[in-house]
Amino acid sequence: MTRARGLGLLLVLLLPMVSASMPGTVVRLNQAALGYVSEIGKAPLQRALQVTVPYFLDRSGEVLQPTRIQILNVHVPHLHLRFIAGFGIRLLAAANFTFKVFRVPEPLELTLPVELLADARVAQGSIGTPVVSVSACSSLLGRVDQLDSHDSSSRALLVLVQKHIDAVLSNKLCLSISNLVQGLNVHLGTLIGLNPVGPESQIRYSMVGVTVTSDYISLDISALLFLLGKPIVLPTEASRFVLPRHVGTQGTMATVGLSQPLFDSALLLLQKAGSLNLDVTGQLDNPLNTSTLGRLIPEVARQFPQPMPVVLKVRLGATPVVTLRTNNATLRLQPFVEVLAAASNSAFQSLFSLDVVVNLRLQLSVSRVKLQGTTSVLGDVQLLVASSNVGFVDTDQVHALMGSVFEKPLLNHLNALLGMGIALPNVVNLYYANPEVFVYEGYVVISSGLSYQR
After folding, report:
1. Which residue from 368, 374, 369, 366 is spatially nearest to 424, judged by alpha carbons?
2. DSSP, res 289
3. Considering only CA atoms, which of 287, 384, 273 is closest in space to residue 336?
4. Is 316 helix (H, G, I), strand (E, B) or coil?
5. How many Å apart are CA 138 and CA 118, to the nearest integer?
C-alpha cells in the first residue's frame, strides 16, 4: 500500500482535477507541474523500486550454495516527466541500485545503474474519474560494479550475480510500476466524492473528457450541486465551456477555469436552501424600534405609543445574479424585507414590506481547495414599498434609517456564508498553492501552484 502511494504521488499531482461540462470547470496542468512532480517524486519512486531479490544459487563450488541478495538502497538522481500529445505522460528515470550479496566469508556490496522508461495513458473512467494505465515499460540495466575496489572477488562470480539480478529486475521493476499505477486509480477516485457546500447541500465533480498536448494536460469536469439529495438544474441549458489558451499567469503549474453556469448553480442552490435569508433582530444588530419609526411614520407612533423592538425579515425570493466582466465581478441581490414590530402579546405585527435591490462588488480568493468570496456594497441600496399596514411610507426618509440597520447585518451574513467557500475539483492531499484569481468575460481563472501534503 505504501508503494502504491509512492508512484501514485507522481501521477496524482498530474491529474488532480479538471473541466468541462454543464456547468463546467477546466483544469490544465502545465510543464511547471511536471517539474514539481519530477522533483518531489524522486523519493516515492525510490521506495517503489525497492523490490525483493530472491536467493542466488552459487554453482561455483561442488555444492549449490544459496546466497542471499538484498537491495540496500535505491537512489534516483534523475527523473523527467513529459506530456505525450494525444496520449498521456512519459516517465524517464535514472536509478542507482546498491546490493549486498551475503556471501561467505565476507559480504559483497555492488552497484548497478538502471534506466527506466514508462508510458502512461490517461483516459476517462466509466464512473467519471481519470484512469491511468501503463501501456509500455522498459528497463535498461547497466554493468554491476563492486564498491570495494580492493576486493579480489572472482569476475566469474560477478558475471553470474549480474545475470541473476538482470533476470529479476527486468521483470519486477515494470511490474511494480504497473501495480503502483493501478493503486493510483483508487486515489484518483476521490475526485468524484461529495463535498459539503452547506448543512444540507453538496457539490460533486466528475470527469467528462481529457485532452493532452505536448505542453499540458487538460481535464474537463462537470459540476453537479445537490440540495437534500436532489440535483440543482439551471433553468436554461449551458453550452460547453472552453477555456482559452492564454489566460491567467503564464508558467504556473495549474490553470483552473470556472464557467459562469457554475456560479449560477451555486447561487441557485443557496437561494433554494434559504441560506441567504436572515432575520435582523436584537438591539446590537438592530437599534431600530417603533419610536424611531414613529417619527417618520405617524401611524406607527399611534399604534405603538411605547417603544417596541422591530425585526427585519430578509427573504430572497429571486435568485441572486453574478455578473463576470474583465477584472470585475458583481453580485445583485433582490431581497424582500418585511418590517415587523413586537406587539404587547409577544406576537409580531407586520408594519410594511420593501422590495430591495442591492448591488455588491464580489472579490474571489482561494484557500487550499476552496473558492471563497467577500462582498461590499456598490452604489446605493434601492428601496420600493411593496405593501404597508401603517399608511404612507416615504422611502426617501426610510432609506437612510433602513440602510444603517440593514446593510451591515446583510453583509456580515453574506460574507460569512461566502467565506465558508465551495470546494474546487480536487483529490485527497493535493492543495492549491499561492493562487491568483482573474475575472474574465463570463468566466473566472485561477492560476496556482500545487502542494502535496500527507
Report:
1. 369
2. B
3. 384
4. coil
5. 7
Reported pTM: 0.86
User: What value does the mean pLDDT take over residues 2-6?
Assistant: 44
Q: How far is 345 from 19, CA to CA, in rounded Å? A: 57
Co-location of 186 and 237 in the same domain = no
Dihedrals phi, psi of 347, to nearest 5 degrees: -80, 165
Q: The C-alpha cell of 336 is what?
A: 424582500
What are the pLDDT digits (tens) for 35-78? 998 998 888 899 999 999 999 887 655 556 788 999 999 999 99
Let me know if residue 223 belongs to a domain.
Answer: no
Q: Is 353 exposed, middle or buried (0-12, 13-18, 19+ CB in 10 A)?
A: buried
Report d(CA 437, CA 441) in Å as an integer. Answer: 13
**Rounded-to-10 torsion of CA 405, 407, 408, 411:** 150
Question: What gap in Å lies between CA 366 and CA 363, rounded to an integer?
Answer: 11
**E strand or H helix that includes residue 397:** helix 395-420
Q: Find all residues with CB under 8 Å of 221, minimum gap 6, and list them.
A: 17, 18, 19, 20, 21, 24, 25, 26, 27, 191, 205, 206, 207, 208, 425
For 282, residues 6+ apart whose C-beta sits below 8 A from its C-beta are none
Residue 145 lies in a domain: yes
In a domain? residue 25: no
Residues 102 and 70 sit within 8 Å (Cβ to Cβ): yes
pLDDT digits (tens, 9 = 90+) for 287-309: 788 888 898 899 999 999 988 88
* Maximal CA-CA distance, the chain: 119
Question: Which triple of cell numbers denotes residue 177?
Answer: 510500476
Range of the structural domain that residue 364 is part of: 232-448
User: Residue 453 CB: number of other CB atoms within 10 A?
Assistant: 8
Same domain, 404 and 268: yes
Counted domains in the chain: 2
404 φψ region: left (φ > 0), alpha (ψ -120 to 50), beta (else):
alpha
Q: Is the peptide bond before 54 cis (omega within 30 degrees of 0)?
A: no
